[in-house]
Amino acid sequence: MEKINKSLNVHSIKKNLMMLIFILPILLCSCKDDNFTVNEIGNLTQSMILNGECAFGDDGILLSNNSHLTFFNPESNTEISLCTRADCYHSTSECDAYIGSLRHMLLVNKCIYYLTMRKQDGIGKFKLNCMDCTGNNRKELAEVNEALDIEGFIYGDNLLSFSTRTYYDKDGNELEKTKSRMFTYDLNTGKLCELFSGEGFKLKFTPLYLENGVLWYFKDYTTEPFLFKNFNYDEWEKIFRSELHKFVISTKEDTIIHTHKISEDIAVDRCFYFINDVQAPVMIDMRTGEKKALPLSGSSYRFYLEEYNYLVYCSDQKFNLISFSDGEKNVKEIEGMISIATGKYVYGFYNSYQSYMDIKDLIKGKNNWKKCNIEGLPENQETK
Ligand SMILES: [Zn+2]
User: Fold this and answer.
1) For 360-375, what is the mean pLDDT?
2) Phi first, then psi: what are they for 20, rounded to 5°?
3) 31 pLDDT tier (thresholds 50, 70, 90)
4) How far is the CA of 69 from the centre of ligand 1 (A)?
5) pTM of structure
6) 72 CA distance to ligand 1 centroid (A)?
7) What one-character-per-residue DSSP string does 356-382 give?
8) What is the predicted pLDDT for the residue at 121?
9) Which helix (H) or strand (E) holds 105?
10) Please, are residues 375 and 69 in contact by the beta-carbon 8 Å criterion?
11) Residue 29 pLDDT more than 80?
């Protein structure tokens, strides 16, 4: 612990100096990158929540920075506002990039799809909206009533998929069982479709991956409501279950692929699903359903860098790189923490800063992290 505290103090001094160094140029020039415009923003097909709402991809990070949308371009290490008005300081709700509070967003074919929530008499309502990359042409696409939580927001087969949960009925009365519903929104037809729904104690569906008409998702629930009400940590394992499911959209055929105890270590990286069983860790490719044994037992696998056939695993809170084929012979320690991998970059935290690294450098063991030049970057994000 002492070591950690010391290093944090050193970091905070460094950080203050670094902040000055970084803030000065930001104040002196507008943070626009002349070589990059919003029209060049490509497709981001992953989304995740990471201290606020960000979508990560090969092209960069779409983020809600102080309620305004910006795009971070790793090529030039610059952040640009999605508002193109020359006379705007992007600081008020009048700005084209103003987004307010949002839950999830994705960028698909130069359109930003985002989910917002409104509470009405204790009953939540979600809206699916879209806008172009200049913050204009905003449209409301669909609405889901009786929804207080939203889980996941993924894209595949020209569909968006998300799941909602509620604990109240239409009249605002608390339900004994949670109601969870899985939706798709068809970008071709503009139709919102409820794929399936369920009621259960603490029931939660989370969409993970969608391709070729097959949706992979998690189902979490409590098996023993009585034990849950009189909650005791010793009983934790007995009462929570999490299942990996495969759902065929056309036939509604639903298959349980794996059942987890709550303590079991699992991870999802794009289409790769890791079951970090202590004795026999396995990776499932959700595109094909193929299961592959992983080289080291007792490790927490997090990412598969498919193009290079390398795996990233975590052990004693340290990230390591390992060749899928060579196994133990070729373990490289990674400095910092990886939180998401795309085909081209890994994004994560190095010296507590949101940073990124080209996967090619990672594979070479270079640890060539670059701090993301994002204005007002939240600090100290080492915790997952
Ligand atoms: Zn603006």
Assistant:
1) 93
2) -60, -45
3) very low
4) 9
5) 0.85
6) 16
7) EEEHHHHHTT----EE---TTPPP---
8) 64
9) strand 104-108
10) no
11) no
